[in-house]
Specification:
Helices cover 48% and strands 0% of the residues. By secondary structure, the chain is an all-alpha fold. The longest helix is centred in the C-terminal third of the chain and has 23 residues.
Length: 108
């Protein structure tokens, strides 16, 4: 079953990144290997502008389910961008056992 809008069907292999909460996205990032993060980034980043254009046609509080999943996928892309572009590792460098818990996040 497709979770993303039809015009983004090429991103369906990465639908497991359509995660509702920041906590889930961060946990998936930490549990992923760099080659997985890189593959997701390489597939999704070139589609980011088209995704934003697609999402802009709806009010944020009235997104259809497939568009909501696309928004969550974009949030995940932001979450993996620094590990891919800068750190070359899933964790923040030199952060040791530090953890981040976001207690409030934007709601759709």
């Amino acid at each position: 079953m497709a979770t993303l809008p039809a015009e983004f069907s090429d991103l369906e292999p990465f639908a497991d990144w359509c995660l509702e909460s920041e906590r889930e996205r961060y946990a998936k990032r930490l549990a992923s290997e760099m080659d997985e993060l890189q593959a997701f980034y390489d597939a999704a980043f070139p589609r980011l502008e088209a995704a934003m254009e697609h999402l802009d046609q709806y009010p944020l509080d009235a997104l259809p389910d497939d568009a909501t999943h696309l928004l969550w996928l974009c949030y995940s892309l932001v979450n993996v961008s620094f590990p891919v572009e800068v750190w070359r590792q899933a964790r923040v460098p030199d952060s040791g056992a530090a953890a981040m818990d976001q207690v409030v996040e934007p709601a759709v």
